[in-house]
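If you are new to this repository, start here. Below is one unmodified record pulled from the training split, so you can see the exact layout before writing a loader.
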Amino acid sequence: MKRAVHVFAVLLAMIASAVGVASAADLSRAVTLVATDRLDGSPFEQTVIVAAPLQDGAYVGFIINRPTDVKLATLFPDDGETRKVTSPVSYGGPMLPRAVFALTSSAPSIDSGVVPLMPGLFAVLDAAGVDRVIETTPNDARYFVGLIVWAPDELDQQVTAGAWDVKPADPKIVLRAKAPGLWDKLRGAKPKSGAENWV
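And here is the target side for that same chain:
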């Protein structure tokens, strides 16, 4: 996985050196990132990501159109609470691939590990918080293994390089979108057969 992330970083550096377009995207709030054709062949090909700024200038994000066929109960067979979760987990990104995170419409009643991404969407980043979501509202959240973190200015450089189309973020798309056809729909392309019902 480290090699794939390194290849992605090299690819973006090459794009940045070849493209001198100024970024006009407003990255001061949560956004939806839609991979452009420049990312074809990379681990982020045809991905759709929700990303939001953190207080230190970095960004956190989750790939929202890479579901797996693995349930939480499979990952944690000794935890009976995980059997309440009916949907499989999604692949959120290459960082911390063994950790489980939750995106939910309401923050769990816990003091730490919860990051408000936008009105109506919270990222639950620590184990205690994720456990609380599973216990209280197990199927009102999406669960991810791994995430993405951009250093300050890194995401802006990638957008300037043409790697991402930036669109407004929408909690409904994040929490309820179906993966097939989502990238096509957001790119304005005609979805492949059978992928028309993307939300």
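Two things worth knowing about this chain: Residues 1-23, 191-199 have pLDDT under 50 and may be disordered. The chain has one domain: 2-184.
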